[in-house]
Amino acid sequence: MNDIKDFFAASGCKMTKQRKAILEILMDSRTCLSAEEIFIKAKNINPNICLTTVYRTIELLASYRMLNKIDIGDNKYRYEINSNTHYHHIICMGCKKMFKVQGCPVPDFESSIRAQTKFKIIGHRLEVYGYCPECQGTV
Amino acid sequence: MNDIKDFFAASGCKMTKQRKAILEILMDSRTCLSAEEIFIKAKNINPNICLTTVYRTIELLASYRMLNKIDIGDNKYRYEINSNTHYHHIICMGCKKMFKVQGCPVPDFESSIRAQTKFKIIGHRLEVYGYCPECQGTV
DNA sequence: CTCTATCTGCAAATTGTTTGCATTTACATT
DNA sequence: AATGTAAATGCAAACAATTTGCAGATAGAG
């Protein structure tokens, strides 16, 4: 909660009711949320918030690297707080549930990329797909 | 070219002018293409093709695992032929150009994922972000 | 308390993608 | 080669996610 106040103070952006609500929702959520889902939750806190504000706040938070934007291939993005612990998601192709997995193999790969491309590497995105234990029988 | 005929024969789908054009375009393209870009190229071959057909053909080809669907975070997908060689992309955050990089660190990671989640792993998506040599100075 | 830049809500515009339906076409069969 | 039919196409319209323009509201510095 003080995190939230601190973030806005540090960023120089105004801490409005709407922004506070959205950031709270994202911080409290164990799963990642679509803009629509954030909007619905935010309405419980502040009934006349609008979707536009959700999108604008997402963009704001993302510009401060507070959020990760996640794509699972269904034409809409989902968002989650960019915690400092690094992890990736595994997504069930049956029921579409996502789970975090700890660890990351990418750093070991980066020197190879640098050698191949001379890029300055900033980050990466990795998602793994498969079937969760419950869906393995049914598909 | 015979690849194309063979693919349609094997799949049992009809080989129409439109589908042939789209598959040719994807096979000849060194970069991945959005639906719109495929559509524009396809018009040069068959002027009265429509976007709907492009989308439907993309979906068809993807269902036969002929295509990879790529998301670079700008609200639209891009597609490329799923060659049997496995690689990933590095994307320049400056000029948005993409390059292939050979190799993949994910298989080494899979046993850890299996241990954590009991998932049956089918595939993965990995993109690396950074700045290309030309953009490193300018940003 | 006041002032002003910043932020919000609303409605409408955009953009990417999908769907319904009448017409056309590929191609198996004669 | 001609025919019949399921499958594919084009068009227009529907959808869904996201973005934009603008007038009014608000946070927070002074």
Count up the domains of chain A: 2
At CATH level 2, the architecture of the largest domain in chain A is Orthogonal Bundle
For the largest beta-sheet of chain A, the strand count, sense and barrel status come to: 3 strands, antiparallel
- Lateral strand order in the biggest sheet of chain A: 1-3-2
Which class of secondary structure composition applies to the elements of chain A? alpha+beta
Q: Overall 3D geometry of chain A?
A: globular
According to DSSP, the number of beta strands of chain A is 6
Residue share in β-strands of chain A: 25-35%
**Rg of chain A (C-alpha, Å):** 17 Å
| Helix fraction of chain A by DSSP (H/I, runs of at least 4) | 40-55%
Give me the strand/helix succession of chain A.
HHEHHEEEEHEH
Largest interface comes to: A-B, 38 and 38 residues
CATH topology of the largest domain in chain A: Arc Repressor Mutant, subunit A
Treating each run of at least 4 consecutive H or I residues as one helix, how many helices of chain A? 6
CATH top level of the largest domain in chain A is Mainly Alpha
The CATH superfamily of the largest domain in chain A turns out to be Winged helix-like DNA-binding domain superfamily/Winged helix DNA-binding domain
How is the quaternary structure best described?
homodimer
Structure explained in plain terms:
Two copies of one chain form a homodimer. In chain A, 27% of the residues are buried. In chain A, helix 2 crosses helix 3, helix 2 crosses helix 4 and helix 3 crosses helix 4. Chain A has two domains: 80 residues, Winged helix-like DNA-binding domain superfamily/Winged helix DNA-binding domain (Arc Repressor Mutant, subunit A), CATH 1.10.10.10; 52 residues, 2-Layer Sandwich (Dna Ligase, domain 1), CATH 3.30.1490.190. In chain A, the strands form two sheets. In chain A, strands 1-3-2 form a three-stranded antiparallel beta sheet. A three-stranded mixed beta sheet of chain A has the order 5-4-6. Chain A contains six helices and six strands; from the N terminus they run ααβααββββαβα. By secondary structure, the first copy, chain A, is of the alpha+beta class. At the A-B interface, strand 5, helix 5 and strand 6 of A face strand 5, helix 5 and strand 6 of B. The structure holds a DNA duplex (30 and 30 nucleotides).
